[in-house]
Design a protein that fits this description.
There is one protein chain. The protein is mostly beta strands. It has a 22-stranded antiparallel barrel. It has a six-stranded mixed sheet with strand order 1-2-8-9-6-7, with no helix packed on it. A three-stranded antiparallel sheet has the order 3-4-5. A hairpin with a 3-residue loop joins strand 25 and strand 26. The protein is globular and about 70 Å long.
């Protein structure tokens, strides 16, 4: 499949930006190219999704997350991979965009939530590791990822711009433009992105069926009648398609329409810091077929499936302060409806059939207070989940009603440059749409998962050395396992898990920095006396960088150990174990030039020596006419890229 580049307005905007380069602020961030993401708070990571980074991420949210220690991505092709944190993904990892939940429609996870999220369209990505918060929707079995926008108010009339162009191997072309006009009474923000690439080649020179194209447009309008008042409405539209090497169909349509409303009033009283109300709507319309993006195989009949998902959510929360205790009290609600239609090239003329819908209501309380030279952070929430099989699912109109509880408590202590901490969390999760779809009507009702987890660690922040270490030990009762060899594909088991993440940076000379990170997970299926499937091996990254604030360069070495603990055919809603994997090591390099205060040029070579390899967390290869089939979908071979970024 050939994708022709489309002329974008971004180059013109970059040229205009260059004209203003003499009196604009410097880029934010302490590195020209991001090669490691640091943990700034216990079990919380924040990163700038627009910063140039290596390896260069794909045009959706999943590969951005892969640069954070602890994350893996089940690769299907060039984009739309399914992210996992510490080996847990799907509904165990809550994905939010502007406080709203995003879900895909495909029963086979062709379109995970991050497939509809374009990192360049957001200002910040926040990751919560483990069940250590209750403010991000339902239970955090594995954690949460929040893609966030925060438009800074204007003190006087003005204009802001941020944009970039990226070109690379496989005719990769990315661009985004973010323009904000505003004044003391409000603002109007316009964001546009485009991401596209042809098939990439792996390290053996084999072409992988992986081309994709995505576009998104966003409009955000805000009113700021007073310094403490913000009213905002937003709308997002995205369109795209993607070819896949792991299955017999491609994603010929990834359409999403969404809107959101926010209202916030701050400094209402000495005891009431803020009151916020948000409402969100997301509609995903997805088409998969075997003829649009690949030649129809001989003897095959054209077939297509067109699932969709309609999600609505709302949240009301208040930030309060009583004595030395700061806490947030909130209620949230969510409704999720799924329908589908299956046919050939005439699928659009067929009626839709509703198969499942779920409703959730929750109440939560989370806060912090000083204690014995440190601080205690704690939270509690209760959710009621009502899950329905609609009549077209062939089960009658069945209803399962779940009452779920979650909570955590963590103590942090400040000891000079050190911040040690320890916490325990409990999270419960109801079976999701995908897990419920794989249960025979004659089988027992699935039980909700319950994760009980201990988290310990420490942060260190010195003058030249910074780092963090976090370790966890967890037991998941009634873990929802997908077992392709069992008579009931989804079933409950008992699972145990432990692991760690670490990162360290050392500025050993004024312009030199040595950085590294490592992540390890271990899991056991105690019910079957097997390893817990889809557990990634030990992975480490080391980078050596030089940066004098005008020129920069870095070497990046990434390695993964072999994984010999596996359970073939078992896994999760996104992927399952295929067998053992060997270890690998790849070397990459990058460089950058701050042309001016407003312009930055970066470039890099990923997988410099063109190593052929696949991650342990990966999808299996499928037969696609004109392409060689592999056991796993291999990672890209040598990849060259260059990015021009502008900001004022």
């Amino acid at each position: 499949m050939k994708i022709r580049p489309t002329l974008l307005p971004v180059p013109l905007a970059l040229a205009v930006c260059h004209a203003f380069a003499s009196d604009v602020p410097v880029f934010q961030g302490d590195a020209i190219v991001v090669t490691a993401v640091k943990t700034a708070q216990p079990l919380r990571v924040e990163t700038d999704p627009r910063a140039p980074r290596q390896p260069v991420p794909a045009g959706d949210g999943a590969d951005l997350l892969k640069s954070i220690p602890g994350f893996s991505v089940a690769r299907k092709g060039g984009s739309s991979g399914d992210p996992l944190l510490r080996g847990l993904g799907g509904s165990r990892l809550n994905i939010l965009a502007n406080d709203g939940f995003v879900y895909g429609g495909c029963p086979g996870r062709m379109d995970p939530p991050t497939a509809y999220l374009f990192p360049d369209a957001y200002d910040k990505v926040v990751v919560i590791k483990g069940p250590q918060s209750v403010k991000y929707g339902g239970a955090l079995i594995g954690g949460a990822v929040s893609f966030e926008r925060k438009t800074k108010p204007f003190d006087e009339p003005g204009l802001r711009f941020d944009g970039s162009l990226l070109g690379g191997s496989a005719q990769r072309l990315d661009g985004y433009a973010d323009l904000t006009l505003g004044g003391p009474l409000g603002y109007l923000r316009l964001i546009g992105t485009r991401n596209q690439a042809d098939d990439y080649r792996d390290g053996d020179g084999q072409k992988v069926h992986s081309a994709y194209q995505r576009d998104s447009q966003s409009v955000i309008a805000g009113l700021t009648p007073g310094r403490d008042t913000t009213l905002e409405v937003s709308a997002d539209v995205s369109r795209g398609h993607a070819a896949y090497a792991d299955r017999g169909m491609d994603g010929s349509r990834f359409d999403r329409d969404a809107w959101g409303v926010k209202a916030e009033q701050r400094n209402l009283a000495p005891w009431l810091d803020a009151l916020r109300l948000t409402a969100n709507h997301s509609y995903a319309d997805h088409v998969m077929d075997n003829y649009s993006l690949r030649p129809l195989a001989p003897g095959k009949t054209p077939r297509a499936s067109n699932p969709d998902r309609d999600t609505n959510a709302a949240k009301l929360e208040a930030d309060l302060a009583l004595y030395d205790i700061d806490f947030t009290l909130g209620v949230d609600w969510q409704r999720d409806r799924h329908t589908s239609r299956v046919g050939g090239t005439d699928y659009a003329s067929l009626p839709r059939a509703a198969d499942q819908h779920l409703e959730r209501q929750g109440v939560y309380l989370e806060g912090s207070a000083p204690l014995a030279g440190g601080a205690v952070h704690a939270g509690w929430r209760h959710d009621r989940v009502r899950a329905y099989y609609d009549a077209s699912a062939g089960r009658g109109e069945q209803l399962q009603d779940y009452r779920l509880y979650s909570g955590f408590a963590r103590y942090e202590y400040q000891l000079g440059d050190w911040t040690p901490y320890a916490g325990v969390g409990v999270a419960e999760r109801a079976p999701d749409y995908w897990e419920r779809s794989n249960v025979a009507s004659s089988r027992p009702v699935l039980q909700p998962e319950r994760n009980t987890q201990l988290d310990v660690g420490a942060l260190y922040k010195g003058d030249t050395v910074q780092g963090s270490l976090s370790a966890y030990l967890g037991r998941i009762d009634d873990f929802l396992l997908i077992d392709n060899a069992a008579s009931q594909t989804t079933r409950n088991i008992l699972a145990y898990r432990y692991g760690f993440e670490a990162d360290l940076s050392w500025r050993f000379a004024p312009q030199w920095q040595l950085s590294g990170s490592a992540a390890y997970s271990w899991g056991a299926n105690a019910t079957d006396n097997k390893p817990l499937a889809q557990t990634p091996p030990l992975t480490a990254t080391v980078s050596l960088g030089w940066d004098n604030q005008t020129w920069a360069g870095a070497l990046v070495w990434k390695a993964a150990a072999a994984q010999e603990r596996y359970a073939v055919g078992q896994g999760n809603i996104a992927s399952s174990d295929l067998g053992p994997t060997s270890g690998y090591a790849i070397l990459s390099l990058n460089g950058g030039w701050r042309i001016s205060k407003a312009l930055k040029l970066t470039a890099g070579i990923d997988n410099l020596f063109n190593r052929a390899y696949a991650e342990h967390i990966s999808k299996g290869g499928a037969d696609v006419a004109g392409y060689a089939r592999a056991l796993r979908v291999n990672e890209p071979g040598r990849t060259l890229w260059m990015k021009l970024q502008a900001h004022w």
